[in-house]
Automatic annotation (TrEMBL):
The keyword Nucleotide-binding applies. GO terms for molecular function: dihydrolipoyl dehydrogenase (NADH) activity; flavin adenine dinucleotide binding. It comes from Streptomyces liliifuscus. GO terms for biological process: 2-oxoglutarate metabolic process. This is NAD(P)/FAD-dependent oxidoreductase. Pfam families: Pyr_redox_2, Pyr_redox_dim.
Amino acid sequence: MTESESIAYDVVVLGAGPVGENVADRARAAGLSTAIVESELIGGECSYWACMPSKALLRSVLARADARRVPGLGQAVQGPLDVGAVLAHRDDFTSHWKDDGQVQWLDGIGADIYRGHGRLAGPRKVTVDGPDGERHVLTARHAVAVSTGTRAVLPDLPGLAEVKPWTSREATSAHAVPGRLVVVGGGVVGVEMATAWQAFGSQVTVLVRGKGLLPRMEPFAGELVAEALTEAGADVRTGTSVEAVTRDGKTVVVTTSAGDRIEADEILFATGRAPRTDDLGLETIGLEPGSWLSVDDSCRVTGSDWLYGVGDVNHRALLTHQGKYQARIAGAAIAARAAGVPLLETDPWGAHAATADHASVPQVVFTDPEAAAVGLSLAEAEQAGHRVRAVDVDLSSVAGAGLYGDGYRGRARMIVDLDTETLRGVTFVGPGVGEMLHSATIAVVGEVPVSRLWHAVPAYPTVSEVWLRLLEAYRDA
């Protein structure tokens, strides 16, 4: 391997997914020379194997479900989905797994791209082993930002590698519909992919070790999603774990903790994520390989004055939109420190503090019904020691829900802090509720008093009128 002369940049970014791209963009906008390193496709997990392909798959599923609820339209959409067209739509959204457009964008902001595997080689130093056998040596005057994301975790089951299970990558990029699919895990990936492939014609069995689906949301969210999956034909089994998996020819044989034997064509493990820091050279700077990176609110790694961990690798919020938010914060902090500008680190809402990642994280689960939440659940708020009250409203009681479609089922909950009269969290479950979440996010992040929310009048007749019902329920309790 040929090693190049060391090249100095102000900032070196490891990982060119949406988070790394945003760090590079903010650094370049501040006039800092920037290099970005990527071992796979420019654009990262979100663009090719997660957010974009999964939502492209689900869009047709949810649109059909919504249409079937509308009088005069439902009969027209009773046939099966054109799965070939859906998969082609997914392929378009992933740019057919080519990154030319993303490369052009990075070129446009003036960042230098290095393809290959990047590793830390001591303080402020990165080596990149390129596909051409050349080793590039990069040094950072001000910062190295690690934005390498996460990978799927597979359980320690004998012979699992020979089974060739799906992870989120295979589930979002598959080009054929398995006749029978076992989904292991009841989190976001598990329920979204169960929703999609069941609608495409798979007979789906969902195996969940815990008590229900979507365990990080309010319990009713998982209950409503499980109910809908069951009605769609899926077999949802809770309190069940996988004891063994084998492949007999083309058939996957799953043995569960209940002693059941399930046959399938494919099995998807959606059982968690781990940081991609195991082969990153962390040991050269005294950190544990494979560990999550502990950071402050500017995303600077604890104990360092030059290393930043941005996005999934810091384990604060494993969501693309939160990672991009952190990237904007980190980029501003790196630029300020490089210019010698004092950071207002005591200001929780300043330009250099990722405060919203503590207790104001929004998330939408694109199932039917959708589940959308921001902030704390009731259990989380109580565990944190807040004096709170949960206010619940049946979404079907809102006029806009009835117009949205016949048989609309859903629920809304807001968690009110009784000491501050502000909202600690909000959860919506129901068709189309994802588009309502930003109003809740503004209320939670902005710490808007309940008394002021009274004057934010929801338009009639929309599903958003649930806000009025929630406030009335809180006032009248």
